[in-house]
Structures are given as C-alpha cells and as structure tokens.
User: Which sequence fits this backbone?
C-alpha cells in the first residue's frame, strides 16, 4: 500500500514539473498528432487500393488501435523503465536506488512520467471504439470484458518489454536499439492484415512477445471473425506470463549489477 | 582562417560519433525490421487488394516501392528527431554561455556540428541497412537505380537533403534557445517534417489532389525527392527539384539566423 502511495507521489511530482514549461500543452497535442499520423500511411493505402479480401480498413485499424492503446498505457505509467538504461545505469545513478528501502522496480518505473504520453492511449481507445461501432459489435458485458482484459494484458506485455530492456541493460550498458522491435515497431506488424503476416513474425508476436494475443484475438472474438472467446480471454494470462518472465530477467540483472559511472 | 576551425569541429564530431560501431549495428536491426514489415504491407496491397493496379496508376510499381523503402530507411536516419542532444544539454545546463564566448559565429558553429551528426548515422548504420537490403531475397531486395543519370541526380539530391536536414536542425536549436518553452514546439515541428518527408508513405501514394502541394513543401526534399530520383518516378524535372531543395535550404537558414539573433538578444542562461 505504501508503495502505491510512493508511486503516486512520483507521478505527481513529474506531472507538476512538466507543467513548468510554457509549451507543455504542445507536447500533448504532439502525441495526439503522432497517434493520428502514424496510421495515416495505411489509411491512404486503403483509400487508394480498396479492401484486401475480407480485410477492410476498420478491421486492421481495430487491431492496431488495441496494440497502440496498450503500448501508450505502458509508456505512460512505467516510462521510467524505458529510459532507465540511459538515465540510471550508464550514469551510475542506480546505486542511489539500491540504498533506499523501497521496491527497486517501482523506483525505476516512477523515475519519469509524462502526462502527454497518455494521449497515445486516448487516441488509440477512440479509434478502437469507432472501429467497433463501424462493425456493429453488440456492447454486451462479455465483449466489454474481453476488450478491457485485452488492454490490461497489453499493458502488462509492454510493461514486460520495458522491464526486459532495463534488465538486459545491466549486461549491455549501451546499445539496446533492437528492443524497438518489441516496442514501437511491434505494433507496425498489426498494420498488416493478420492472414498475410509472415509465419515467423506471427509466431514471435504470439508465443514470445504476445502482441497479437492482446490485439488480434480479442478483436476477432468480439467481432466474430471465427476466433472463439477463450482465445480472446487469453490476453491477460499471456501478458502476465511475459511480464513475470521479464521480471525474472530483471532480478538476474540486478544481482549482476556492478555500478558504472563516476 | 575561420573556415578551418569549422572544418576541424566537423571532423572531431564525425570521428567521435563513428566510434560507436556496435551501437550502430544494433540500431540497424530496427531499420531492417521496419523495412521488411513495410515491404510486406506494400506487397499485400499490390497483390491482394481490390484495385491492385492503383499503385501503378500513381506512378509507382511494387519493385520501385521496395527500393524506395530501403533508401527511405537510410535517409530517415538523417532527419533530425529532436534538438541535437549535445546542444540541448548545453542550453539546459547554461553551458551555452561558454559557446557564446568563442570567437566564432554560433550559427555556423552549430551548423557544422549538426551536419556531422546528420552524416554519421549514414555511415555504419546506414551502410548496414543498405547491405542488408541488397542481400534480401528477390521480392524484398533493394533494386538498382533506374538509370545512371538518375543515380547521379540522386547523389546530388541526397547531398542537398543533408543541408536541408541540417538547416532545419539549426532552426530547431534556435527555437529551443528560449528555455522556458521546453520541447513541445520542437516535437511538433519534427513530426510535421517526418510525416511530409514521405517516410510514412511515399508521397506519390497520398491522395491525388494533394500531389502538387506535397511536391512543393520543404520536407519532400528530405527523403521523397532523392528516393523518387533513385527509383526513376520523376526523371524529367531533376534539375528543378534540386533547385527547389536549395530554395528551402535558404529559407531555413535565413529563418534560423534571424531567430537565433533575436533569441540571443534576450537569452536566459540557467544553471551555475
């Protein structure tokens, strides 16, 4: 309980310090602009080329929007982990965290927070709801539950990626650019209609990093594209498993930590 | 004599950045992955969509798009994604006052540094991306240029694009000099630059009615114009588009210099 209060305090401080800048609202608009422009390529392609078999624009955007919303949530609330390798390990600032009698992951996660990142989730959610309405999905309790759990699972999945990044940074210190494959580049995969995603990619993003489990399967279950509901409900356990796997790597990393910097 | 100072600044920065070879190679994996996904998506549209010939009607075949994507990934590395990190650190820590003491022009000084920073990613990381593109299986391969003449024009356009990206980077620095505004305006401008450079989607595949405007706006010179010259979807106007690039370079340089002079007149140095 105390940890949660501490985390809340962290968020509040970062939020207030962000407001010091005159241009802070522009950041919020900028991220919203990112959300609108990121899928612009796929929208223009659909308008030029028409549908791909059964795949219409709202189907593809729905899957994409679910992945983006999850990513945005993780990026907002555990942003500290995202910049952790650069800000904490390379400078040796991690030593200071070790001295405090509070959970390490929580301190690392709370070391940065930008309210404007939430606009990514906001944009994603609006797009997802719009796509669901276009496909005339019944707003039943079960459907709402599947989508909510999908977002929870997605949040855990992307949090897992950030924890994994930080955990690996204990070993590599620098150069973790390839991790972008599992963050910003991962939801680009969702832009490709699911049936045409190459098998290798489909397996990686289903069985290793469950991006498709938290986006495609819940969407397919809710919209009735021939996937059963139980697969849609797998999102939360899959996300949880991946996050726990990442935490175990992080633990090994912490034990391996030898301090750097001056 | 001053030109020698600028040249050595440029050289020092280039050498310093080129040291991080492994980081560059690791970064290349992201670019390659990104290119492969884009090519997959384009292939799906060009093969299975309702109007498979829509791309050709816009003037781009699938082979041309594939080459465009690879060259685009290379040129994307050149675009400024924020204020140069070193210069930003100086503005935030107050070290900018040290820069002002130097007996050289601040704009030109920063211009050389930013130019070096814009070139270095092209070397290790960019080279890796291009080699990977050349080694891909047929359907994903980075194809040869449309013609020798086109290739020479491409090189010139890339050279101009470098100046364009640098001039834009300097403009960003000049804006960032007003410390109390933060990064908000910068990110906004950077994003607009990225979207309209054609890195999201070749500009030719954007809606037909916007084409004229898209062609004339400054950011096409970053990426779209060199790529078009390479794949040969704009062979006749080559000299004119390079002039267009230089027009926008002049605009960015003049804006940057004016703004910097204005900002320096009432600069706030923070830190101690």
Assistant:
């Amino acid at each position: 309980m105390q940890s949660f209060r501490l985390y809340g305090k962290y968020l509040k401080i970062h939020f207030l310090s962000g407001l010091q800048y005159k241009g802070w609202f522009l950041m919020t608009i900028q991220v919203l602009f990112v959300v609108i422009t990121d899928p612009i390529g796929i929208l223009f392609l659909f308008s030029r080329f028409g549908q791909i078999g059964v795949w219409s624009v709202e189907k593809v955007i729905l899957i994409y929007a679910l992945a983006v919303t999850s990513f945005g949530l993780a990026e907002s609330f555990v942003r500290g982990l995202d910049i952790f390798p650069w800000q904490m390990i390379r400078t040796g600032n991690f030593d200071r965290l070790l001295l405090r009698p509070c959970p390490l992951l929580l301190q690392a996660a709370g070391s940065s927070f930008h309210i404007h990142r939430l606009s990514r989730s906001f944009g994603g959610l609006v797009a997802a709801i719009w796509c669901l309405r276009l496909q005339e999905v019944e707003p039943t309790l079960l459907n709402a539950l599947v989508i909510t759990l999908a977002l929870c699972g997605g949040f855990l999945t992307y949090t897992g990626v950030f924890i994994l990044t930080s955990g690996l940074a204990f070993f590599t210190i620098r150069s973790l650019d390839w991790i972008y494959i599992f963050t910003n580049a991962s939801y680009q995969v969702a832009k490709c209609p699911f049936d045409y995603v190459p098998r290798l990619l489909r397996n990686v993003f289903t069985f290793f990093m469950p991006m498709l489990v938290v986006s495609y399967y819940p969407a397919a279950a809710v919209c009735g594209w021939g996937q059963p509901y139980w697969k849609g409900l797998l999102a939360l356990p899959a996300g949880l498993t991946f996050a726990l796997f990442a935490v175990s790597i992080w633990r090994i990393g912490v034990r391996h930590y030898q301090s750097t910097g001056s | 004599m001053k030109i020698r100072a600028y040249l050595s600044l440029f050289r020092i920065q280039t050498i310093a950045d080129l040291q991080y070879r492994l980081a560059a190679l690791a970064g290349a994996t992201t670019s390659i992955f990104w290119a492969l996904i884009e090519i997959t998506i384009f292939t799906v549209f060009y093969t299975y969509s309702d109007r498979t010939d829509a791309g050709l009607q816009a003037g781009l075949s699938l082979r041309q798009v594939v080459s465009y994507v690879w060259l685009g990934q290379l040129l994307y590395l050149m675009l400024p994604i924020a204020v140069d990190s070193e210069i930003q650190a100086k503005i935030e820590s107050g070290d900018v006052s040290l820069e002002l003491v130097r007996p050289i022009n601040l704009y030109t000084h920063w211009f050389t540094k930013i130019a070096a920073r814009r070139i270095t990613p092209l070397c290790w990381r960019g080279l890796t991306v291009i080699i990977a593109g050349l080694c891909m299986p047929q359907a994903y391969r980075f194809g040869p240029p449309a013609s020798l003449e086109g290739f020479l024009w491409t090189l010139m356009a890339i050279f101009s694009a470098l100046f364009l990206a640098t001039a834009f980077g300097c403009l960003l620095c000049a804006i960032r000099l007003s410390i109390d505004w933060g990064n908000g305006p910068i990110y906004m401008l950077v994003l607009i630059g990225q979207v309209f450079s054609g890195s999201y989607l070749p500009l030719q595949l954007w809606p037909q009615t916007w084409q004229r405007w898209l062609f004339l706006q400054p950011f096409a010179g970053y990426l779209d114009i060199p790529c078009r010259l390479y794949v040969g979807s704009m062979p006749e106007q080559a000299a004119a588009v390079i002039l267009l690039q230089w027009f926008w370079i002049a605009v960015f340089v003049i804006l940057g210099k004016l703004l910097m002079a204005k900002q320096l007149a009432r600069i706030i140095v923070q830190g101690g």
